Structure prediction request, 309 residues.
Amino acid sequence: MTRHFLRDDDISSVEQAEILDLALELKRDRFAVKPLAGPQTVAVIFDKSSTRTRVSFAVGIADLGGSPLIISTANSQLGGKETASDTARVLERQVAAIVWRTYGQAGLEEMALGTTVPVVNALSDDFHPCQLLADLLTIREHRGDLSGQTIVFLGDGACNMGQSYLLAGATAGMHVRIASPVGYTPSETVMADAAVIAQRTGGSVELFTDPLAAVAGADVVVTDTWVSMGKEEEKAIRLGDLGRYRVDAAMMALAKPDAHFMHCLPADRGYEVDADVIDGAQSIIWDEAENRLHAQKALLVWLLAQNNA
Prediction:
């Protein structure tokens, strides 16, 4: 059966650790393995604009000996005349893997259904699992063992980052706190799935409406943009609803003295986070951004090995 990576819990705790171990190896020796030598091609499809995802996948595929084929859905048949499953059946005969940054999770699931090459979720409205691999790698580098770490996500808990933190953090055995106002909480289904995983790994998941209570004693404080692509018309409302969840120096002071700050970027300085936090000593966002490259390379290597076993 072909292995895909569509959401964070598509891999087990052991498999997650294997991928992170491999990411550390590839970060130390960037050109150590070339599973895409040939070069083999990886299709990287974009429904949304991108900086970090586009660059990290293109560079990473090249590092692995392959050739990235960047496809914009605006200039393809996908989502227009052709279904995701039909596109996948064409691509699988020519490429080694398919990476897709899209809107609906259902499209990714349709593409993966019956496809003989790995399909990777490079971002959907529901989940951002590649970013979470990079985030976990960064936390591990700066704080050691992930198990038992307390991580707080502040702001829109219903966004893809909030939901991925629940699943990936629980898989790693972390204590995940989501602090969001009413109306911005994660899916009940995702919460339930994360709770089941946490029972197995020794982690925990918890919802807060009070951001100050959530941040108290945290190891890592995380936020994300409050106005994601496609929600620009809601900006004024969202800024009003989420204002008290902004990460500033006073908020960081409630966490552990050695706590770290993370943000997947791009950041709206002065909205969800103050500039002095982004640029401060506790911020590890630039390592986090770089680690997209290493984590995604490790994921591709791991998926290709699983599917060629």
